Amino acid sequence: MKNMLPILPFGAALTLALLVSACGKQEAVGDVPSSEELARQADAASQAIRDEAAATEGDGAKSAVDLTSMDSYTNALRGYTILVPSSWTVDETASDDNGRVYTETVSGTKLAVSWVENREDLAWSKAVQQVEDGTDAMEGAPVGKNEYRASGTLTNGLKSSLRLLRKPDGTMVQAQVTYAADQAKSTDPLASAILDSLTLQ
Prior knowledge:
By secondary structure, this protein is α+β, with helices and mostly antiparallel strands. It has one domain (34-200): Protein Transport Mog1p, Chain A, CATH 3.40.1000.10. It has helices at residues 10-22, 35-58, 123-134, 184-196; strands at 71-75, 80-84, 89-90, 99-103, 110-116, 139-142, 147-153, 158-166, 172-180, 199-200. It has a seven-stranded antiparallel β-sheet with strand order 3-4-5-9-8-7-6, sandwiched between helices. A three-stranded antiparallel β-sheet has the order 1-2-10.
């Protein structure tokens, strides 16, 4: 006796198999924030930093850096935001979906901020070790469990200040400001303010 089941074309059979395998599976779509929501949260965080700076100045304590006039760069895809002086320009060739590189054209001061994927459990220690082993001039220390800061004067006459933050999913965001060491007195406060403004979402 011949099989009486109809013969389906391969494409239809594959579609049917996928539909059957998907039955009973549920995705928690409602728990995942949209790109717009991440951007809104990041903008709110940077605005809170500006508001705090304005309130401090209102109390008579003059800040060394005017945060209220800075622009915020928000990477909604990677979930972070950072304040950047509005006069700095984006280096499009060095920037991508993970982050941006900004340059202050007169002094050559540079900010590089980027998301770093974590493919293994030791990625955090490796990232810290890479900073410390990269040059003897960089000295750093952990700040809590998920933050690391380092700074130092490099052999090429540049000073570098770095902040590394680890997100709950293990991925990392690194921000680094590099500038002429002979301008450290005037640029150190700005570099600190920029790195302090880095906020994760």
